[in-house]
Design brief:
Elements lengths: L1 E6 L5 H9 L3 E6 L4 E3 L4 E3 L2 H8 L4 E2 L7 H9 L4 E5 L6 H4 L5 E6 L11 H7 L4 E8 L9 E8 L6 H24 L31 H10 L6 E5 L2 E11 L12 E3 L6 E4 L4 E9 L5 E2 H7 L6 E2 L5 E2 L6
Parallel strand pairs: 1-2, 1-6, 2-5, 6-7
Antiparallel strand pairs: 3-4, 7-8, 8-9, 10-11, 11-14, 12-13, 13-14, 14-15, 16-17
Helix pairs in contact: 1-6, 5-7
């Protein structure tokens, strides 16, 4: 089939790569506009554009998806199907163009985790499995009829980055299989069944660690936000991002203030009390400094037990024995 591919971030590249290796023919790519990025605000192209140009593919970057010139070019490509991976919400003027339909790859088992951040929320919520879904785009977000789904187990130490990478590869395979079956007339779309859940875009206030929560929930938050945007707390008034952590279960509840540093030994590293249990911080970064393993961090920032991480830095006055 003739395919127009629409996508923007790294997550979309394995699918575009797989389509180029398949029997289908990618006739054009649509991605977002180049945007300023980083501290220097240097204008940079999106990852899909960089990859597409290397492959010699024609690329469109419309400011508006309703521009007449853009819609005309889509028509001119005479695609059988549009494939969308991590792109903008499409208006009906766009997704109704191809005769076969417009297919979206979503990184969840729909109807669970509809929205912009399904990988992050699956980890934050402590899910043990997730997957990918291909479906026909309709007028609502992530509600269309399902074509294929494939599950994957979430590993206990998966971060968002690691799960993202595995799902992008799995998703690429599922998209190609979806097109193959559609072309042969062997795929019957089916409505989404089950209770929908939402996965909205991550906001800054989602990222701050609440040390009164159980250790497992805190570790899940850290996993779900690693490496970006990163779960954070405060140390000495400075932002402290945490990228890896694990649960420590042998800290007795009620003996420590949530957020209190209870161990900085070489053996255990930086251990912080939670509402239930404790969390060993394994990899962290203080604002303006390098990301470091806990042992290296403690060599540069020796901490005393009793220091409390959080909005207000406190030193707990211990009662004499």
């Amino acid at each position: 089939m003739r395919v127009v591919f629409m996508g923007t971030p790294d997550f979309a590249i394995p699918t575009l790569q797989a389509l180029l290796k398949s029997k289908h023919h990618v006739v054009g790519v649509v991605t977002r506009e180049d945007k300023p990025k980083g501290r220097g605000l240097r204008v940079e192209p999106p990852p899909v554009k960089v990859f597409a140009l290397k492959e010699g593919l024609p690329v469109l970057q419309p400011e508006s998806l309703k521009e007449p010139e853009f819609l005309q070019q889509l028509q001119n490509w005479k695609a059988d199907v549009f494939v969308v991976v991590a792109f903008r919400i499409l208006p009906p003027d766009v997704f109704t163009i191809p005769p076969v339909g417009t297919i979206n790859l979503h990184a969840s088992l729909l109807p669970k985790y509809r929205g912009a951040a399904p990988i992050q929320w699956a980890l934050i919520n402590g899910e043990t499995e997730t997957g990918v879904t291909t479906f026909f785009i309709d007028e609502h977000v992530d509600t269309g009829t399902i074509l294929l789904q494939e599950k994957i187990a979430i590993r206990p130490d998966d971060t968002a980055e690691e799960l993202h990478n595995r799902l992008s590869v799995l998703g690429a395979q599922v998209v190609v299989r979806t097109l193959d079956l559609l072309e042969k007339g062997k795929l019957q779309p089916r409505p989404q069944v089950g209770t929908p859940t939402r996965a909205p875009k991550i906001q800054k206030n989602d990222c701050e660690i609440d040390w009164s929560l159980p250790a497992e929930k805190i570790v899940n938050l850290i996993r779900g936000l690693s490496p970006a945007p990163g779960a954070f707390t405060h140390l000495e008034g400075k932002l402290l991002k945490i990228f890896r952590a694990k649960v420590v279960s042998d800290v007795e509840a009620g003996h420590f203030v949530p957020g209190e540093v209870v161990d900085t030994s070489a053996q255990n590293g930086l251990v912080v009390a939670a509402g239930k249990g404790a969390v060993a911080l394994l990899e962290l970064q203080l604002a303006g400094k390098k990301r470091l393993p806990a042992a290296d961090f403690l060599r540069g920032h020796p901490l005393q037990t009793g220091t409390v991480l959080g909005m207000k830095q406190l030193r707990i006055a211990k009662s004499p024995p």
